């Protein structure tokens, strides 16, 4: 292309990379030669590889791409990651490996400096990221992996504070709405909860039970009912509990999404929140502050998670194993005194 335009290779390169140092008539001659030859300009990928830095972060999940926009937790986290990247002038790429290993190329070929992984363990995303050789930080890691750099939250401590809160309000008939326990709604045994591979589910259940045990509630007195992660079958899970002679006066949900679905179900059934039933969630998604009534929740430090994770990729150092951040109990209008507390 340089020969066709009658210029040196250096001048042709400057036309595309430093056009201000080339006279206008020469720029036009080189560009016309490029058009004739079908040359679109230097490869952005090649330029980034030569520079050794893309100044961009990939966020990868095992779910389809619409997960980043449909799930309230993912939306809130992505908003904070985007805010941090904007402030640093860094790009952001969303990567899905929902199809499994056959689409691992989406991680292996992304032009990024490193990855934030929303994953359930090393069996997929972590292994692919390790093969790529770029730095990565796991977020919401569902398994105990001491050699995987991760920024995580104190699920146990946050759940215990929520349980202490409802117990202090006088609630003694409490049920736990569990996620990650299968898509079939219904009561599950304590052994099944302890056997799940999801660390966050086990830790939240353990925290709820620890807080309630301080008020004298034994494990077998606190039912755990499985609910689908999207809360779509919450009615099937709650129906048998509220059809009984001594329905719960408080619900501790393992996610805000499930808690919000429970609020809608209770309202449709004619039960008052918190007059008849108190509800507490877990995550701190924005929708909880806008619900009717506003949702009491255990709030994750989304801003701190994003700032630490992005800085680890762009600046280092990576976390050594699992860094755990504390949570905050946000008390709102969905929790109140137990209706029978004075009886």
From TrEMBL:
<dbReference type="Pfam" id="PF00356">
    <property type="entry name" value="LacI"/>
</dbReference>
<dbReference type="InterPro" id="IPR010982">
    <property type="entry name" value="Lambda_DNA-bd_dom_sf"/>
</dbReference>
<keyword id="KW-0238">DNA-binding</keyword>
<keyword id="KW-0804">Transcription</keyword>
<keyword id="KW-0805">Transcription regulation</keyword>
<protein>
    <submittedName>
        <fullName>Substrate-binding domain-containing protein</fullName>
    </submittedName>
</protein>
<dbReference type="InterPro" id="IPR000843">
    <property type="entry name" value="HTH_LacI"/>
</dbReference>
<dbReference type="InterPro" id="IPR028082">
    <property type="entry name" value="Peripla_BP_I"/>
</dbReference>
<feature type="domain" description="HTH lacI-type">
    <location>
        <begin position="1"/>
        <end position="51"/>
    </location>
</feature>
<dbReference type="InterPro" id="IPR046335">
    <property type="entry name" value="LacI/GalR-like_sensor"/>
</dbReference>
<dbReference type="Pfam" id="PF13377">
    <property type="entry name" value="Peripla_BP_3"/>
</dbReference>
């Amino acid at each position: 292309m340089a020969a066709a335009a009658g210029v040196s290779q250096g001048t042709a390169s400057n036309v595309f990379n430093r056009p201000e140092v080339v006279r206008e008539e020469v720029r036009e001659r080189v560009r016309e030669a490029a058009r004739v030859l079908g040359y679109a300009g230097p490869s952005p990928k090649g330029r980034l590889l030569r520079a050794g830095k893309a100044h961009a972060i990939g966020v990868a999940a095992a779910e389809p791409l619409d997960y980043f926009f449909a799930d309230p937790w993912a939306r809130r986290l992505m908003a904070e990651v985007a805010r941090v990247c904007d402030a640093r002038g860094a790009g952001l790429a969303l990567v899905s490996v929902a199809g499994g290993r056959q689409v691992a190329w989406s991680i292996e070929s992304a032009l990024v400096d490193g990855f934030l992984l929303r994953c359930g363990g090393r069996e997929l995303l972590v292994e692919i990221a390790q093969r790529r050789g770029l730095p990565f930080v796991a977020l919401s890691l569902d398994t105990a992996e001491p050699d995987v750099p991760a920024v995580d939250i104190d699920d146990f401590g946050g759940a215990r504070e929520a349980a202490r809160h409802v117990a202090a309000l006088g609630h003694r008939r409490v049920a736990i709405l569990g996620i990650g326990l299968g898509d079939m709604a219904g009561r599950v045994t304590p052994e099944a909860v302890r056997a799940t591979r999801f660390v966050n589910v086990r830790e939240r259940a353990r925290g709820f039970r620890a807080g309630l045990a301080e008020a004298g509630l034994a494990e077998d007195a606190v039912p755990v009912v499985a609910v689908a992660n999207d809360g779509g079958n919450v009615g099937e899970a709650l129906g048998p509990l509220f059809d009984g002679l001594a329905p719960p006066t408080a619900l501790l949900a393992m996610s805000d999404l499930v808690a919000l679905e429970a609020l809608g179900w209770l309202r449709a059934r004619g039960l008052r929140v918190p007059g008849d039933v108190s509800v507490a969630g877990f995550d701190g998604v924005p929708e909880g502050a806008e619900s009717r009534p506003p949702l009491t929740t255990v709030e994750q430090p989304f801003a701190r998670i994003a700032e630490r994770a992005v800085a680890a990729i762009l600046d280092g150092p990576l976390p050594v194993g699992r860094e755990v951040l504390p949570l905050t109990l946000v008390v709102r209008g969905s929790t109140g005194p137990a209706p029978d507390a004075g009886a």
